[in-house]
Amino acid sequence: MAASLLFLRSRISLILPFSPMPNFIAFNSTISRLTFSTASASPPKQIGTHNGTFHCDEALGCFMIGLTSKFHGAQIIRTRNLQVLDTLDAVLDVGGVYDPRTERFDHHQKGFDEILGNGFTTKLSSAGLVYKHYGIEIIAKAIQLDEGHPDVHSLFSAVYRNFVEAVDAIDNGINRYETNQPPRYVNNTTLSSRISRLNLNWYDADQSPEKEDQAFQRAMNLAGGEFMDCIHFHAKSWLPARSVVMECLATRKNIDSSGEIMLLTMSCPWKLHIFELEVEMKIDPVLKYVIYQDKRNSKWRVQAVAVSPDKFESRKALPSHWRGLTDDHLSQVAGISGCVFVHSSGFIGGNKTYEGALAMARASLLA
What we know:
Elements: H1 2-7, E1 13-15, H2 24-30, E2 46-49, H3 56-65, E3 75-78, H4 82-85, E4 90-92, E5 98-99, E6 104-105, E7 115-117, E8 120-123, H5 126-143, H6 150-171, H7 191-196, H8 209-250, E9 261-263, H9 271-280, E10 289-293, E11 300-304, H10 327-334, E12 339-342, E13 348-351, H11 354-366
Parallel strand pairs: 2-3, 2-4, 4-6, 9-10
Antiparallel strand pairs: 1-3, 5-6, 7-8, 10-11, 11-13, 12-13
Helix pairs in contact: 3-5, 3-8, 5-6, 6-8, 8-9
InterPro entries: MYG1_exonuclease
Protein name: Metal-dependent protein hydrolase
GO cellular component, one term: cytoplasm
């Protein structure tokens, strides 16, 4: 193997180990210092991926697999030479084989149709394959809980849905919408787009493997940093907010007998949870309005629930004859004191008091 590596020096990239930190703050403070190295106290395991133009999936996959106990501090070898790849401990996004028993995680071969399951049907990329087999371990370590803890499994699904699945879909050329119409605008701000821009430019004078390695290292840093930020957000914000929204949904009929108005008792992200919890809790009829206090000015808001998480359209917008009005004029038209505003689209309105906001929601239900 040593002879092969020496012979292929101009075509093989070596990225040596980094040590994932046990908590988010320490991890994020050291991620920019991940460097190429040729020194190691003991021979590291070796992970293969292809050289040349890189994509988000293998950059993220290489980062994630390095967070596991089995491949902690692993060396990454970038090559397409099958003889070299066959000697390595794991191979991602190259080699034409998917076999978790031998740590082979490619998705380009004919007939490949692996999905995560558990309700997800998107074809996996190399990142999704690593996540499928190691995601539970990675998340459990990140939040310092046992792998069997229910919060770990909730986060496993949430992080896939809100981060990894998009990487899988984009790499496999899966459109977000079933339509033959061209998009209304260009979106080059996705993680996959930003990773792609880290590749060497065609006009760069230095196209050496060393420069390519440095670019791939930056890609790993970018993908890995955002992946860990995603876990951090879902563990520290999303999961606690889910519990708040669940409790508020369970007690919604105490607010209004219709069951279509919910009082959010604590300021937290609630929009995504509504749709998932309505299914889980078999909410019928579905929610139309959420009332909450704006902590910035102590006034109250009544917000119409959207038809879906990625749509601006409301299930039942506030009445059309209220929209665009403010203060006393709005209060006079609505017949409700203390009104502050209603947005021109009718998705949100405001009142000085909780009672006023509730009255606006109730009147909107009947409009």
